[in-house]
């Protein structure tokens, strides 16, 4: 039961991250390379989340979904780590987008100023 709670808390976070990636890719806010890398990272995280506990139980000779050893602290800790990864990744993407926008605005401003100076001469 505890393992299912762990999945119910974390799969929506990963799903939102994947949906945000697809949306940003479709809106051309991220490159295809960045999209591929991020999708692979989130997919690996999802696979590890889903299969690590059952595989561990099988290797130790227990039923796959036996979650007596999984404490509430473990569930909260895992959820917090995945949520922080999501937040940090989202903040990094926003910073990169802001830097690109500022760079584009600076370039446009430089062009306009050089045109203005050439018009005076």
Could you give a short description of this structure?
With 121 residues, the chain is mainly alpha-helical.
Quick one: biggest sheet?
none
Unreliably modeled segments: none
Helix content: over 70%
User: Which band does the percent of strand residues land in?
Assistant: under 5%
Number of domains: 1
Total strand segments: 0
The number of distinct helices, counting runs of at least 4 residues, comes to 3
Shape: rod-shaped
> How much is the radius of gyration in Å?
22 Å
The sequence of SSEs as H and E is HHH
| Helix-strand makeup class | mainly alpha
Oligomer: single chain
Average pLDDT number: 91
- Termini, distance in Å? 78 Å
Describe what you observe in this structure.
This protein has 121 residues and is an all-alpha fold. It has one domain. It contains 3 helices and no strands. Helix 1 packs parallel to helix 3. The longest helix has 49 residues.
Which properties best describe this structure?
3 helices, mainly alpha, 121 residues, rod-shaped, 0% strand
């Amino acid at each position: 039961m505890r393992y299912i709670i762990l999945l119910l808390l974390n799969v929506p976070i990963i799903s939102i991250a994947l949906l945000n990636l697809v949306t940003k890719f479709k809106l051309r806010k991220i490159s295809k390379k960045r999209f591929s890398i991020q999708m692979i990272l989130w997919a690996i995280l999802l696979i590890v989340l889903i299969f690590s506990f059952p595989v561990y139980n099988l290797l130790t000779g227990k039923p796959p979904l036996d979650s007596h050893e999984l404490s509430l602290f473990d569930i909260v800790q895992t959820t917090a780590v995945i949520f922080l990864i999501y937040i940090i990744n989202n903040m990094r993407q926003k910073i990169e987008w802001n830097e690109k926008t500022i760079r584009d605005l600076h370039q446009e401003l430089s062009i306009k100023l050089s045109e203005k100076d050439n018009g005076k001469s």
